[in-house]
Amino acid sequence: MRPCKRNNIIQFNEWKIVSIPCLFSILVIQFLFSCKQPATKSAQSFAKTDVYYTCSMHPQVKEDHPGKCPICGMELIAVPKTSMKANNEMRLNAEQIRLGNIQVDTIRSGSIGDRMVLTGTLNFNGQKLSSVSTRVAGRIEKLYVKKTGDYIHKGEALYDLYSEPLNNAKQEYITALQEQTSIGNSLINYGAVVEGAKGKLILWGMTGEQIAQLSTDKKLSASTTFFSPDNGYVTALNMQEGSYAMEGAPVLQLADLSTLWAEAQVYTTQLSSLDQNSQVTVQIPDLGNKSIRGTIAFENPEIDPDTRINLVRITIPNPNNQLHPGMPVYIIARSRQHHSITLPADAILTDSKGSTVWVQTKPGVYSVRMIETGITEGNSVEIISGLEAGDIVVTNGAYLINSEYIFENGTGAMEGMKM
Q: Whole-model pTM above 0.85?
């Protein structure tokens, strides 16, 4: 072997060796290339990782790398991508469950008690309402009642009315009386004429005393006073002084408050358990839960097709007028005890679309479900349909899960879940 130097290349027979400067350059390139290889592989493996990073306080933050929450600055935690929820699910990690105090319970079949508590309000007794209307057209010259809430006694003056038709009728009555006195017996039966004119005055609202006074004085007054036909409180004033009233126009409304109606709404699912022949107790919270006994006097035969709600009504006495329409009441009625599954009231979310609960399908995974409720006893609500014994239901924190779902997906997503 004979080395020879030619063009910066050392040659040993057929082997060629690159010179020292060239060899250094090649080593540098190879080193850089070898450094990039692991980085590319790491990036590829990171892209294929099965976790993402989120904030336990702000789950809407989702990053593909560790770091701090851009909202609160907390360290992001790794969450498996398999925890990404389906359209009708919420998935929470252990930290979110702890912070939200999410609690679940397995529902079981049991019995619900023998009474039903309904929330209602006091209302006017419709059979004790009266409307004072004009019987003849005219102008309201004077109102003796100035405001609602005044108590009016039967026979008390309500308003003065100027009416040309009524004045003409009064004049006819006076003329008939005068002709009966002056002419006496003739071919014309003036007694029948007088009675006919008197009947018209009675029909148009004049009292017997007013007609007797008119027959005695035989003087025609421009206006006529009208009186209250009943006792009661003024609940509405429909006319003002100077207003022109057509025949039959309401002037005011009166309400006798000696008895009131306690009204409550009942779901159709509760009707079958309601013992309508038994006595009920009406409690008035505004009067220290004062209790009054009564019976169900009315059940609306028509059920609202949208709300599936029926109306029951209890007539109760109102001694000393202590009770007022609009007061809230609790109506405690007897119901038939039966077996059913129940849930705490806090576990049920209710809106205009119906009632829903959050069911745990597996640890950390919650799905919304529509239910139909029945009677309520204390804090327990009967479940008619939608759940079965053995289902695991969120009993504490359902509102938080619901709010979080709406926060992440919007109200439209929640509406779609309930359809």
A: no
